[in-house]
Amino acid sequence: MNVPVDHLDHRVRGGWTPSGAADAALPAHASRWLSARTGLTPVDTPVAPDSGLPVPESVLPAPVRAVLADIVGAEHVLVEREDRLGRSGGLSYVDLLVRRGAGELPVPDAVVLPGDPDQVRAVVEACASHGVGIVPFGGGTSVVGGVSALRGDKVAVVVLDLARLDKLVSVDPVSRLAVFQAGVVAPDAERMLAAHGLTLGHFPQSYERATLGGFAATRSSGQASAGYGRFEDMVEGVRLATPRGDWRLGVSPASAAGPDLRQLAVGSEGLFGVITEVTVRVRPAPAWERYEGFVVDGFAAGAEVVRGLAQAGVLGTVTRLSDPQETEVALTLSGGWKTAAVKGYLRARGIAEPSLLVIGWEGATREEMLTRRRATLRLVDGAVRLGVRAGETWRHGRFSGPRQRDALMDVGMCVETLETATYWSKLGDLREAVREALLRSLTAGGRRPIVACHISHSYETGASLYFTTLVPRDPSDPVGQWRRAKEAASEAIMGLGTITHHHAVGVDHAPYLASEIGPLGVDVLRAIKAELDPSGVLNPGKLV
């Protein structure tokens, strides 16, 4: 089920499911299974009404508000309670817990909606001169605190909502380049490109809400990255508004003119400037697609299959391996796994620990797509084929996870994700270390956690691991329950993999950054920020 999102309203409403849309309600069989499997006693934990959440009065000085109104128009400087609350935080589990009354949100003092890159630059310069913090805001999908309105030592903090920067600036079909304003939401980008027979090919789970500027600022990776690359691979140019002025980067497909400064913008999380335009590499939209499902016996065997595909250069456009725990959860919640027929079918074929492998191929022609499929299947050894139906089931539900989380939270589940990546030789050790840390932290009070994992992105040298945790919520300390588990998992990752493969650093991962890039690396980032943002107004409290 793909629920349309109002792309002109990025406000967070306490969950992923848009206001007025049908919820992804938890089926009765799924609730019974979760109760038996985890010890869940379903409780009603709805999102609190906006009127029930604490919102402090705005402290934005009147002279600053007047300056901002002169730049963008008074109607685009919002200080009403509802508008400020709607841009308070992102969509992490903890963010959404607070929406259920479990704490307080850092609420901005105003929301500013510039209409073009020049207005963004003027707003940034005005805020810098008045000591007002600026939080760039796209789709509000951060799950690591990246859009939290932290004030720090500033007199006030405003959210710079880029929703009005929603244009396709230009298309160069000969060079296969497109220039987008940073506030364009991913589905809109695909619709705009489709009119030219093109696609960006970037489909993370946040696809329905996230913006192209957000993809660039966080080094996003999509479900089809095996075919199209990570977002930083797509970025050919970038335009930023900094307190020091406008900055444009990217003039050719390759250059030896010193370090590639585009990479200072890509992954900078709004600390060095506000991304206002992104030039991206695009490709012809595929005419043929085919998705299939396979089952491999055990995660280790499945990982070996995926490694073989990656190192032979024959991955599908999408190649995704779920471990036995995720396979069980996904197919149980969808209603298709616990049937005797399916279990018997797999047992008869020697599958003791089913791990679901989904592979998708694309092509401009049917023969091109089938040629890629044949190259992949030559190396898919020992797998039981489930066919197109299993693959299409995954494809049609590929963006439903956040809505399922809404439904699970409504009945009292703690449900959250984290991700990492490492080299192939360390992959098994990393998975076990994180699983053990999460299970150890979350097993208490009769609660029996499920820790599920999948390989979401694969490379010649290694792969990412994406974990999902399900456990009944601790009503006495719901925020602390997850934060302790996340800390345990993060400590387990150190020395084995990266603290984040595609969720970015934000607030949550900042304590671990020095362990990954070294104290000298942190000093380098701080020096760059000091040069571009001398007064430190850009996204206070994030990254470094």
From TrEMBL:
One of its GO terms (molecular function) is oxidoreductase activity. The active site is at residue 466. Gene3D superfamilies: 3.30.300.330, 3.30.465.10, 3.30.70.3450, Uridine Diphospho-n-acetylenolpyruvylglucosamine Reductase, domain 2, Vanillyl-alcohol Oxidase, Chain A, domain 4. Pfam families: FAD-oxidase_C, FAD_binding_4. The record marks 320 as: Important for enzyme activity. Its cofactor is FAD. Keywords: FAD, Flavoprotein, Oxidoreductase. GO terms for biological process: lipid biosynthetic process. FAD binds at residues 136-142, 218-221, 269-275. Transmembrane segments: none annotated. Substrate binds at residue 405. Residues 104-285 form the FAD-binding PCMH-type domain. Belongs to the FAD-binding oxidoreductase/transferase type 4 family. This is Alkyldihydroxyacetonephosphate synthase. It comes from Actinokineospora cianjurensis.
